[in-house]
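Thread amino acids onto this structure.
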């Protein structure tokens, strides 16, 4: 936030409204997505008796159970893309969660396999709006999981994890564990 307040380009600074909305964006985008990924990943790993988290494990966890399944795009001019005709005002739903389970780039997509090769998953979106926090999220997840398993080497599920019935975020309401 200090850097945002100090930021200046060509003599222009962010207005108070811009500062506040950017902070809200960073809190929502940057906090909740990572929190849910953390829960989803702990669930995925404990269900398989895995108690380690290297980069490959984190990457596969993000593909396997991402916190955001769908983002919208709005068509601003009539166009045809990939054989589909769109009209101005149409909404396009980008199903990131489904794309991550596409069997063509990810053979046997419903299997959790940290050793899989293939393209990078699309959990962080793509193109001009690609997640600005992706490197931070990957780092946070790896560090947090490594500390968690170091401190709780016997961590185990104590019940069936419950997903929340929410529209936007795909994450757990409850994840009961024993240490
Ligand atoms: C596992 C964690 C995360 C996931 C899965 C995730 C996912 C995404 C996705 C799918 C988008 C693209 C939205 C779109 O195409 O409309 C996005 C955008 C964004 N993310 Fe993340 N995100 C995560 C963590 C973070 C963190 C830690 C930050 C910041 C500290 C962050 C900040 C943002 C911002 C500012 C955008 C908007 C970028 C733009 O529109 O140019 N995200 N994120």
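Threaded sequence (179 positions):
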């Amino acid at each position: 936030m200090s850097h945002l307040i100090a930021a200046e380009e060509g003599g222009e600074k962010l207005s108070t409204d811009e500062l506040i909305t950017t902070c809200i964006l960073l809190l929502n985008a940057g906090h909740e997505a990572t929190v849910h990924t953390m829960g989803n990943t702990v669930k995925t790993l404990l269900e398989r008796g895995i108690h380690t988290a290297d980069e490959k494990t984190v990457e596969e966890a993000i593909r396997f159970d991402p916190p955001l399944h769908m983002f919208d795009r709005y068509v601003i001019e009539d166009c045809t893309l990939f054989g589909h005709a769109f009209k101005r005002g149409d909404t396009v739903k980008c199903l990131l969660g489904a794309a991550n389970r596409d069997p063509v780039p990810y053979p046997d997509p419903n299997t959790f396999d940290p050793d899989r090769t293939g393209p990078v998953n699309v959990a962080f979106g793509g193109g001009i709006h690609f997640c600005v926090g992706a490197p931070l999220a990957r780092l946070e997840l790896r560090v947090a999981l490594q500390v968690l398993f170091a401190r709780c080497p016997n961590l185990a599920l104590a019940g069936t994890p419950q997903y929340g019935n929410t529209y936007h975020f795909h994450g757990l309401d409850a994840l009961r564990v024993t240490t």
